């Protein structure tokens, strides 16, 4: 199951899921004692650019539709519309999905639809929770709406028929797309559905992951998830796969990267980086690989810079490969459109680094946004 995580540096230390979605915690439980592998040689530079410079919001969440082969992201605030856009990962063809300021939060399991917030419906502070088709013949739908700078969190279930929706201030609702039925199941931020779509992992806004609960969809009954993830941490990503709930998380020192398996209660040190780890965490569809950015000071005293490197990690063998890198002059990082126009929302959704990072369905490619406002694709 997918569960997206990305946040500002401050929020990443305290908040749950936010695709995504950030969780924050510390210490380590039962860590493996072996030293993980070191990264191999770096690639030549960034991958293939799919857009022009300044085309996308540098901190935009990024989703890959397996149905259309498109990458879904937010347009740059420098563009004419600043809305939701799709760019094809092979042909580079681009289309605007919604001209309003928008934040994507999930895609359907088969890639046929995108779930997102569209702002400015009935007023500048109005938000719509929307489902928009990327493929197929079904009509766009508004699942919910609110005002006063609210924002929706949505998670699509593996069965393609259930969607969890909440705006934090209201109850968590499960929408059944085939019937139009919606049922309240308590409160909390949805993190991930079970593989059978009959249970959902939720957490209170800004609460540590060890307070997460599992809610049964049919009855609304809840029980502690008992994830056993430490507090505080600097970032995380949750998935609920066939082997149960798993959490990739970054320690508070922003150098150690861990994998926690809730079913067995084991925590493994995947990588201890000499550099700072930050930005989004991506998990491959099978759960066998992860991707994360690192950075360190570079350049000279006269021209200081920060070197960013993108790493792909084999979680079983703990083998780290660097697939892209670039140096960014200090002080040149652009301001996110959403963080600039909607600071409260930007603080929840966007990290203090390039935000979009996603594997292709076949796990052979990785797409990501960078500080120049482009979407890139790298082969693995």
Q: What features would you describe in this structure?
A:
With 380 residues, the chain is mainly β. It has one domain: Methylamine Dehydrogenase, Chain H (7 Propeller), CATH 2.130.10.10. It is 3% helix and 43% strand. It has 2 helices and 28 strands. The strands form 7 sheets. A 4-stranded antiparallel β-sheet has the order 1-28-27-26, with no helix packed on it. A hairpin with a 5-residue loop joins β10 (153-156) and β11. The longest helix has 7 residues, at 343-349. The two termini are 22 Å apart.
Short description:
The chain has 380 residues and is mainly beta. It has one domain (11-379): Methylamine Dehydrogenase, Chain H (7 Propeller), CATH 2.130.10.
Tags for this model:
single chain, 380 residues, mainly beta, Methylamine Dehydrogenase, Chain H, four-stranded antiparallel β-sheet, globular, disordered N terminus
List the helices and strands and how they pair.
Layout: E1 48-49, E2 63-64, E3 70-74, E4 84-88, E5 94-98, E6 102-107, E7 113-119, E8 127-133, E9 141-146, E10 153-156, E11 162-166, E12 173-176, E13 182-184, E14 189-193, E15 199-203, E16 213-216, E17 222-224, E18 233-241, E19 244-251, E20 256-261, E21 266-272, E22 276-283, E23 289-299, E24 304-314, E25 319-329, H1 337-341, H2 343-349, E26 357-359, E27 365-369, E28 375-379
Antiparallel strand pairs: 1-28, 2-3, 3-4, 4-5, 6-7, 7-8, 8-9, 10-11, 11-12, 12-13, 14-15, 15-16, 16-17, 18-19, 19-20, 20-21, 22-23, 23-24, 24-25, 26-27, 27-28
So, CATH architecture? 7 Propeller
Output the number of helix runs: 2
Class, according to the CATH hierarchy?
Mainly Beta
- C-alpha geometry: globular
From the N-terminal CA to the C-terminal CA, the straight-line distance is 22 Å
The beta-strand count equals: 28
Largest sheet: 4 strands, antiparallel
Class per helix and strand makeup: mainly beta
**Uncertain stretches of 5 or more adjacent residues:** 1-44, 337-353
How many domains?
A: 1
Radius of gyration: 19 Å
Q: How much strand content do the residues show?
A: 35-45%
Task: Provide the helix percentage.
Answer: under 10%
Order of helices and strands: EEEEEEEEEEEEEEEEEEEEEEEEEHHEEE
Strand order of the largest sheet: 1-28-27-26
**What is the assembly state of the chains in this entry?**
single chain
Query: What is the typical, i.e. mean, pLDDT?
Result: 83
User: CATH homologous superfamily - what is it?
Assistant: YVTN repeat-like/Quinoprotein amine dehydrogenase
- The CATH topology, please? Methylamine Dehydrogenase, Chain H
